């Protein structure tokens, strides 16, 4: 089963947008994500509907952030993507009348539900600002390492 990496990809895009002022075209974002501009427009449209980004047409136009990064969580972005399936695993349903299958599915259903609840809760705790702060810290560490390597 193919992994759905849209959440990771859109978070990547949003962090790039937060680091540099000015609009980003769908084509520029598509190149950064190695995908088609149509895919970017489809994803960004969902974010625009919820007020996280805005778009301007014409020369000099493109996508810009329209939200306070400290108020937008990873869960908000996940919902904007249409709440894709979090887990790739599922139940076997070839013999719904089988008591063994019913017992196994009941146990797995509860485990899957619990795992999704924990993941959604964690996504709700992390804001885009927190991701941006982590990125800036990593960039600072990299600069320090580079200066040390050059004897500074």
Assigned CATH architecture: Orthogonal Bundle
Average pLDDT, rounded to a whole number, is 89
How would you classify the helix and strand content by structural class? mainly alpha
Model regions low in confidence, pLDDT < 50 over at least 5 residues: none
Quote the beta fraction.
5-15%
CATH topology: Arc Repressor Mutant, subunit A
Kindly, what is the distance between the CA atoms of the first and last residues, rounded to a whole number of angstroms? Answer: 49 Å
Gross geometry: extended
Q: What's the total count of β strands?
A: 2
Strand order of the largest sheet: 1-2
| Portion in helices | 55-70%
- CATH class group: Mainly Alpha
SSE order, one letter for each helix or strand:
HHHEEHHH
**Rg (C-alpha, Å):** 20 Å
